[in-house]
Write a structure and sequence with these properties.
Keywords: Coiled coil, Methyltransferase, Mitochondrion, S-adenosyl-L-methionine, Transferase, Transit peptide, tRNA processing. Its EC number is 2.1.1.218, 2.1.1.221. One of its GO terms (molecular function) is tRNA binding. The protein contains 15 helices and 8 strands. By secondary structure, the chain is of the alpha/beta class. It has a domain of 182 residues: Alpha/beta knot (3-Layer(aba) Sandwich). Helix 1 packs antiparallel against helix 2 and helix 7 packs across helix 8. The chain starts with a helix and ends with a helix.
């Protein structure tokens, strides 16, 4: 047994350990040889049979095969690293040449790049990675800009907070809040009612309902700060509706303290029908003047798909009078829908109530929807529009000349 251990140690020292030292595996093989020698000693002690001869040649083959596998794995890893480094250098040259190549690329992305079957596939993959990197950079830049804006706003807010610490400013703000509340409280007794029809929840998605409530919150703020506010009514309002949930999200504890009237009844049950006017963009009747004795109804609906005729059909079913704002009479309207947001409608109605001037009121219409205010008479504009339409429809030149001749002869006879 001692001779076998001695031979084992000699073999390990002479052949295996130098090979392992060259490849950095000496630390792993030394405990392995020690365990082999100990296992042989234990077998000798426990077995009663005479010891068998150790087949050293077979053991050498086993050890060499394991070492060869490890060496082959290390060689394959080295080859893979060399190919990845060559691919990185190639991509760097392409990037310097002006091709669409990402600046930072991982090893996994390089492997997928090398596995692409053709050059076009490789180019498309690199372009995809380049665009992805650009999107990430743009998102990061936007986030940094938002962070800078937020920090600037916080700094400005801190400066304004220092100014607000002044007792006079705080007293003035409290007094203004009380004055606004007092005006709204007076409007609930003596003011003109304005109705928001809250019966369009089924015609909208959850997102559209949230946008509607946001616009109504802005409308309530504008009405509260006005000189002569409306008495706002929420009709057809249900407690467990999406409207109610969104209002609680916005107002929280202040929802129960709002100076407005909320009811689940229809407006035809609360007010007489002859005083109600439903404001809708689909109405054929155009509103000429603001009537202080009438009660105007605004549909609480935001429709991105622009569902025409919904509010008009509801008003007709209830037998109510309808009206539309005279947008074409005072504005050179562009192509597009004539639907306005609820806060814009509130500002227009408040301005009409205070001044009665349509030009001042229609300044709250977004400027992207019209070219300017009408300066010529409506008849001349209608004639020019008719001529433009005839030219667009592609009528014959003779018919157009006849129309011009008729109009010219009429002007001569009038003179």
């Amino acid at each position: 047994m001692q001779s076998a251990n001695v031979l084992l140690k000699k073999i390990v020292r002479s052949s295996v350990l130098p090979f392992a030292a060259q490849h950095g595996m000496k630390k792993d093989l030394f405990p392995l040889s020690r365990t082999l020698s100990l296992s042989l000693c234990l077998k000798q002690d426990n077995s009663c049979n005479p010891p068998k001869k150790l087949d050293l040649d077979a053991w050498k083959k086993v050890m060499k095969s394991g070492l060869q596998e490890e060496v082959s794995e290390t060689v394959s890893e080295c080859k893979e690293l060399s190919t990845l480094a060559a691919a990185r250098e190639l991509l760097e040259m392409w990037r310097l040449a002006g091709r669409l190549v990402p600046e930072n690329i991982s090893d996994e992305q390089l492997k997928t790049f090398l596995e692409c079957p053709s050059k076009s596939a490789k180019k498309k993959y690199l372009r995809y990675l380049h665009l992805k990197e650009l999107y990430k950079k743009n998102d990061k830049r936007k986030m940094d800009e938002k962070r800078e804006r937020r920090l600037e706003s916080q700094e400005q807010a801190s400066k304004t907070d220092e100014n607000k610490r002044n007792s006079f400013i705080c007293l003035w703000a409290n007094c203004m809040d009380r004055a606004y509340s007092w005006r709204v409280a007076q409007s609930m007794i003596f003011g003109q009612p304005l109705i928001f029809d809250m019966s369009y929840e089924k015609d909208m998605s959850v997102r559209e309902v949230a946008n509607t409530v946001r616009q109504i919150v802005l409308s309530e703020g504008c009405n509260r700060r006005s000189v002569d506010p409306f008495h706002i009514h929420f009709c057809n309002f249900k407690d467990d509706s999406l409207y109610h949930k969104e209002f609680i999200k916005h107002y929280r504890e202040a929802w129960g303290k709002l100076l407005i009237t909320v009811t689940d009844q229809c407006y035809t049950d609360v007010f007489p029908k002859d005083k109600l006017i439903y404001l809708t963009a689909d109405s054929p009747k155009v509103m000429k003047t603001f009537d202080h004795d009438k009660i105007y109804i605004v549909g609480s609906m935001v429709d991105r798909s622009i569902k025409t005729g919904v509010s008009l059909a509801r008003a007709k079913r209830l037998g109510l009078e309808t009206a539309a704002l005279p947008l074409e009479k005072y504005l050179l309207w562009n192509t597009g829908a004539k639907n306005l947001t609820l806060d814009q409608m509130m500002q227009i109605l408040l301005t009409l109530k205070d001044t009665g001037d349509w030009k001042k009121a229609l300044e709250f219409v977004p400027k992207r929807k019209y070219c300017g205010f009408v300066s010529k008479p409506v008849r001349q504009l209608q004639k020019t529009l008719n001529l433009i339409n005839t030219l667009k429809l592609g009528k014959r030149q003779e018919e157009v000349q006849k129309q011009f001749a008729k109009s010219y002869s009429r002007k001569l006879t009038q003179k």
